[in-house]
Amino acid sequence: MSLPIGAPPTLLTDSPAVPTIRLQGVTARLGGETILDDVTLEVRRGEFLALIGPSGGGKSTLLRVIAGLLKPQAGQVQVSSSPALVFQDYRLLPWRTALRNVQLPADLGTGGSLSPAEALHMVGMSDYAGYFPRELSGGMRARIALARALAQSGDILLLDEPFAALDALVRERFNEELRHLHEKAGGTTILVTHSIREAVWLADRVAVLRDGRILEVIDTRGQGRASAYTEGVEARLRGLLGAGDSTRLRVEPRERWQASHLLALLAIALGFAVWQLAAVRINQKLLLPSPAQTWQAFVTHAPMLRQAFGVTVGTALLGTLLGGVLGLLLGYPIARVRALERFLNPFIVASQSTPIVILAPLLVSWLGFGFLPAVVVSALSALYPLLVSCMVGVREVDRTYHELFSTLRATFRQRLIYLELPGALPMLLGGLRLASSLALIGAVVWEFTDANQKGLGFRVQEAGTNYDKPLQFAAIALLVLFGTALYSLITALERWVMARRGQ
């Protein structure tokens, strides 16, 4: 269930006499159901509090209320500083390395006095600073998420079962490290857990939460810590198993070169062979020139073809750029505001249902001939794929990451730059792949209309009129080569981006 994001809690004064966190009569409802019912709780500065109770009792909801992610329907929430929340699923950005994930609070202007490198060192992950989340085990990701919280400003740390998915040995070791970090940092820590032993081992006090109510808060200082793992059969088993630790995941190496990669070259060679055989069979230069005749025409008319190539490529690239910018400017607000999509959808569908050839005479009457209308036609051809890919990509950014950015107090601009655009990048590259091909088609279509645009489209038409098939085939071959090269470049970039994310 996605949780609404509420206003931040009221800040308490920074005084030792005032609790770090104070909840008074807090009631929270989700979907018409009461999750927290008249909760009153105070947490003192430097204290370690454990929240324990059955599933669905409201523990995670209580953390979200304290973090400001959920606004209660009744009661007061007061905190001395903005908390750092470590989620159970860690929420590491897949396109950032371990160090850059820890650096996120600093990038958003909410970093504390602890540098990202120091925070990584505190959790024992300095050697893995350059690794991406997909290359790390669950235990390592938990440490990175904890380091990110430590690097965030404020002295309140909220932990929503961050070690629940870890095996027992690793979890025991992390508990020891967490207790050490808490004592070293001197901040206030609230841990949600289902483990009674974990709560007693770590916490100064344990709050029991059931059915949305706090039943009792038990003082556990000095009780159980010395004997929890050091007596009886447990101690013997731990001695046999040794200390647990997280290990790095085995990442499959990149696909090595294989003979199958030659299949594309084989297909091209077979295509040229069929072309040559067909040309010999027909034996009519005016109908189908051979590859050798086409090459000779290219060499003979090389200066003219290079100039035409420059005109077409310049128009197509500028059209792709202009169409891409317009697609982003239109697609982003449409993705964020559903009502805007419903309003603009008829116009978008109508524009894409109209062939660009039909619009050419209108553009001639409005803009005349020349480079400007050529770029406009190319941009209109590229607009729709990028608009749609922007809409889909932005909407597919997981809402859990938006919750993370809310805890980091990110602005609209920061969400756009650091979350939504990087999150939508694979989808945008897929749209760019199609848009670049359509932009090239739009540029060539305009050259068929405008004799002033002496690009490759114009040369193809001119050579056909003069019955110069070798020259016509040479111009077509240049168009095919450019389109294929651009498509392959964007595809390679897309694969590189997806590989970095483990997809």
Report on this structure.
The protein has 503 residues and is α/β, with parallel strands linked by helices. It folds into two domains: 10-83 and 154-241, Rossmann fold; 290-500, MetI-like (MetI-like fold, Orthogonal Bundle). The protein is built from 18 helices and ten strands. The chain has helices at residues 59-67, 98-102, 104-107, 116-122, 138-150, 168-185, 196-202, 232-241, 263-282, 291-300, 302-336, 338-353, 356-367, 371-395, 399-407, 412-449, 456-465, 469-500; strands at residues 10-11, 21-30, 33-43, 48-52, 74-79, 84-86, 156-160, 188-193, 205-210, 213-219. The strands form two sheets. Strands 6-7-8-4-9-10 form a six-stranded mixed beta sheet, sandwiched between helices. Helix 11 runs antiparallel to helix 16 (412-449). The radius of gyration is 32 Å and the shape is elongated.
